[in-house]
Amino acid sequence: MNPLSLASGVLPEFGASVVIEAARSAGFDAAGIWVDPAEWTTAQSQAARDALTATGLPLLDVEVVWIKPGEGLDAHRRIIDIGADLGAADVLCVSSHPDPAATAAALEALCHHAEGSGMRVALEFGVFTQVKNLTQARAIIEMVGHPLGAILVDPIHVDRSGTSIEQIAQLDPALVPYAQFCDASARRPDPDDFDAVILDAVDLREQCGQGALPLEAMLAALPVDIPLSVELRSLALRTAYPDPMARACAVAQATRDWFGRRRDLAAGENR
């Protein structure tokens, strides 16, 4: 089974240290945290560092760098600095800038800033951004031309953007240091209805194996054994499991169950 990380989006109402502790409680192999550079304090860094030390978990990613027109890069650089201080492997980036060249220029600057930190700068595509599909993401990363530039694949955004499994399989494995993982309904929101797209992404994701996405094929198309950040934003889960530890455990169990069914099926086919 791929290493599994608890994404911050599973526990959006809780701070970084709680997410890290919940990840360990549920048996995840790593954690990811949300960093708001305007509100992040040295105390939060210390609490996150203490939680990482106490649990022994690595930090897979920090999020989110959101590139927007008319904004500088100082806040984005601070997210990278905080992630580097905590030993994060990746920083998640999205872009609402309509000019691909401007997005590439910002990403290139952030890649240079991340040099020596051990972090990759991973661009996520999705119809909720101006980098709407894998084709556009690849073009931007090619413009960036920096070895720290990477692409983040999320099953719900793959499906909603019309990106194919074949396109994922054709990616250079070096461009995909990790991926997100979740399931979702077959019902796709209107890509021109921004509110519906956001609702789908932040409230309507489903546990692995309980939706309609071709997760087996998606996983097979990704580089072998890369870490998977279980990004399961779900109003149903937040309602059913208000306790962060219980919610993390429910997500971990469903994900392990999906991997177990996959393993059992493969074993049966090989008999």
List keywords for this structure.
271 residues, alpha/beta, TIM Barrel, eight-stranded parallel beta sheet, 8 strands, 14% strand
Describe the overall structure.
Pfam families: AP_endonuc_2. InterPro entries: IolE/XylAMocC-like (IPR050312), Xyl_isomerase-like_sf (IPR036237), Xyl_isomerase-like_TIM-brl (IPR013022). Residues 20-222 form the Xylose isomerase-like TIM barrel domain. It is built from eleven helices and eight strands. It has 271 residues and is α/β, with parallel strands linked by helices. The protein has one domain (4-269): TIM Barrel (Alpha-Beta Barrel), CATH 3.20.20. An eight-stranded parallel sheet has the order 6-5-4-3-2-1-8-7. Helix 1 crosses helix 11 (244-269). The longest helix has 26 residues, at 244-269. The two termini are 20 Å apart. The mean pLDDT is 96.
Question: Can you describe this structure in just a few lines?
Answer:
Residues 20-222 form the Xylose isomerase-like TIM barrel domain. InterPro entries: IolE/XylAMocC-like, Xyl_isomerase-like_sf, Xyl_isomerase-like_TIM-brl. The chain is built from 11 helices and 8 strands.
Q: What share of the residues does DSSP label as strand, in percent?
A: 5-15%
Largest sheet: 8 strands, parallel
| CATH fold label | TIM Barrel
User: Helical element count?
Assistant: 11
> How many strands appear in the DSSP assignment?
8
Q: Which regions have little confidence, pLDDT < 50, spanning 5+ residues?
A: none
